[in-house]
Design brief:
Elements (H helix, E strand, L loop, with lengths): L1 H19 L2 H29 L17 H24 L5 H23 L3 H19 L5 H32 L7 H6 L6 H19 L7 H8 L2 H28 L3 H23 L5 H22 L2 H31 L10 H4 L1 H14 L6 H15 L3 H26 L5 E5 L2 E4 L14 H13 L5 H14 L4
Antiparallel strand pairs: 1-2
């Protein structure tokens, strides 16, 4: 009953919250779901390790866990728990009524439910349904602040992602045509009958699937929704969007990429992945250099890192292991970054980089978290991203892809410099004078520091601490999990 509990609990909880509408019950539901998700995910992982497979579940073959999606599930669980803890302090200080509080909580429950469904789905069409559900579930969350900019970001998100999902649906239809008499979209059956799939239809379908789900991932050039949505959503939602939603959509690409390898069409798929990955780095390098909104800056960093993961998959071999390590580390660090950005927004009431300085003097803990998040995302030792990027470069050199490695290094250097100058400018210096009215200047020392509770520091401290430890010492069970996930994607050197 583990998979069943994970999928049924949020539906029942959402119905109860909608009928009762209580802030206390809303918070309890989120905490309860995070505990249920953690307990059952750990049980699933332990049974997978001991028995190699899970017992039969009520949903039959439609949901399953293997050595690949267990990694994505555990990342989702960890980030969700951190967001729930942060949210306890974040939501408490918002001036919202019980209806808004309830819809916000239901939105989170359904958002996590839809991502969990996408991760656990053993059928390509069912995965598509859940990815579409993530758009519907998260639209209200992005619009939550109900400003002109958040409304614009929400419409852009819904419009662009809906087009992307429609393209992915076309790709699924084309793949279904290619399967011929073996008309099945279950991943296991697709892999078993890979040699019977018509190569023409498979190649054509991969283009549509990559662009379609790539829209949800935020890979360039189909990334336009991401900077707006990430920057306008409340910080806990931004953390979920960047650290879990992008992963959930990427998992489906990985499933289909394995099918391309089994049919010896991986060279074609690698060219497309590398092209989108390099373009993602280029777009980030261009926009992040002179950006003046720190949440948009972090959003572009997500585009960059998903591009790096795509390149790692395309390089193959050691690059796939590096991509899995990068995915894990990016989720921990980027969620910390967005949550810390929420603290900064509480302190300064602005997202503009040029209006912020002296964070270390204003709130030392937030300032150091901001700096450590930069160290992590920039891949500076002891960040695990340093290891993943080093391994990815090694894989490129081993395969004599020297031009790709050079382009990769140049773009990374530009991006690190662009983000770094903004982070350092915001962290150091004197506290800026803010102006409430023409006759009432005040300093940011009188801002909402009291509104930042302990729960709004704890997740970042844990996530950053864990990520930096992983850069120094990798526990054997995590290393094995990453290795197994890489083998599940490809055993081709």
């Amino acid at each position: 009953m583990m998979i069943e509990t994970i999928l049924i609990f949020p539906i029942i909880a959402s119905i109860i919250l909608f009928l009762i509408k209580s802030k206390k019950l809303n918070n309890l539901a989120l905490i309860g779901y995070s505990i249920v998700l953690l307990f059952n995910s750990v049980m699933i992982y332990s049974k997978l390790i001991s028995a190699g497979k899970l017992p039969y579940n009520l949903f039959g073959a439609y949901f399953n866990v293997d050595s690949l999606n267990i990694l994505f599930l555990l990342i989702l669980v960890i980030i969700f728990i951190g967001v729930v803890i942060y949210n306890q302090g974040f939501i408490k200080n918002l001036d919202i009524n019980e209806n808004q509080h309830t819809y916000y909580s239901i939105g989170i429950l359904l958002f996590i439910f839809s991502m969990t469904g996408a991760i656990l789905s053993a059928n390509l069409a069912l995965s598509w349904v859940f990815i579409e559900a993530t758009t519907l579930a998260s639209a209200y969350l992005i619009y939550f602040n109900k400003t002109k900019h958040s409304l614009e970001a929400t419409w852009k998100y819904v419009f662009i992602c809906s087009i992307g999902i429609a393209l992915a649906f076309v790709g699924i239809i084309l793949l279904s045509i290619g399967t011929g008499q073996y008309n099945s979209l279950f991943f296991n059956e697709l892999y078993l009958n890979a040699d019977k799939i018509a190569p023409f239809w498979l190649k054509l379908s991969f283009v549509f699937i990559l662009i379609g789900f790539g829209t949800k991932i935020g890979l360039a050039p189909v990334h336009a929704w991401l900077p707006d949505a990430h920057s306008e959503a409340p910080s806990p939602i931004s953390a979920l969007l960047s650290a879990t939603l992008l992963n959930s959509a990427f998992l489906i690409i990985l499933r289909v990429y394995k099918l391309m390898e089994l049919t010896n069409l991986d060279h074609y798929a690698r060219i497309l992945l590398i092209s989108m990955g390099i373009l993602s780095l280029f777009i980030t390098a261009v926009f992040v250099f002179n950006i003046n909104n720190y949440k948009r800056m972090l959003a572009y960093s997500s585009i960059e890192n998903m591009g790096i993961i795509a390149i790692g998959i395309a390089v193959g071999g050691l690059g796939i292991y590096a991509a899995m390590l990068h995915l894990l580390a990016h989720s921990l660090i980027k969620s910390s970054f967005f949550l810390t950005a929420g603290n900064i927004l509480k302190l300064y009431k602005t997202k503009k980089i040029n209006e912020i300085s002296g964070i270390l003097k204003q709130d030392k803990l937030t300032g150091w978290l901001w700096i450590l998040c930069f160290v992590g995302i920039a891949g500076l030792p002891p960040s695990p991203l340093f290891i993943s990027e080093f391994l990815l470069l090694k894989a490129m050199f081993d395969k004599n892809q020297f031009i790709l490695a050079l382009i990769f290094i140049i773009f990374l250097t530009v991006i690190i410099f662009g983000i770094g100058k903004s982070i350092l400018k915001m962290s150091f210096g004197d506290i800026k004078t803010l102006k409430i009215t023409d006759n009432q200047p005040i300093t940011s020392e009188h801002s909402a520091l009291k509104d930042i509770s302990l729960s709004m520091y704890m997740p970042q401290l844990v996530f950053i601490g864990v990520s930096l430890i992983l850069g120094i010492y990798m526990p054997s069970f995590i290393n094995q999990m990453l290795h197994n996930a890489a083998l599940a994607i490809s055993s081709v050197p």
